[in-house]
Amino acid sequence: MPWPSRKRDKGAVADKKEPDAKIAKTEEETSDKEEDEKSAKPPAGSSKSGWKNWKKTKESESGGEESKITYCHWLLKSEPESRLEKGVDVKFSVDDLKAQPNQTTCWDGVRNYQARNFLRAMKIGQQAFFYHSNCKEPGIVAIVKIVKEAYPDHTQFDQKDPHYDSTSRKENPKWSMVDVQFVRMTKRFIPLSEIKAHHLAHKADGGPLKDMMLFTRQRLSIQPLTQEQFDFVLSLEEEKPH
To answer: Coiled-coil intervals in this record (predicted)?
Structure first.
């Protein structure tokens, strides 16, 4: 039985400063002040040497070849703390996912066209970071994988659901969802502030996080990652927290 609409886009609106004409009304009406504040003042430039060491290792492994810019991994935002929307608690933490049958759930409630298109581009077996958003300390907590590709999101037709869309038709659904399954917790929590520090350093020296959508399109709850971006962020779990 599908999990109620308790996750998704509400944790993806840190960037109210970046309006998007196609963003659904429910997204426009929420904000993520905690996340915005957390990402505003990271320790500047603290990742530069780390990026160079990581790059040297990766070049050695690949013979120095540049990786192709393709999106094959994802970052999925979800709210770990209770918040009522139209009387429904939209909370959905990684612990909630782990409690589901077979540790699997549908990723429903996405009401942004670009995020929806990213959902539709997902392939079975691809991995994604599970990102806790709109909370005291946002960041990456786990890895999940896609186990069912895009299909119609049932919540768009449910009048009792906060993500109900009266303009969507069953013969031509506007919104899609995928099924994801828990893979493992990251070896440590990787906070937004730490990723932000690497992003700023990479903007200066050309590292893989320089164009990471977590900072260029903060509003999106579904974000693509290149292999290089995914590998670099994953490598952070081996480092001691700053």
So the answer is: none
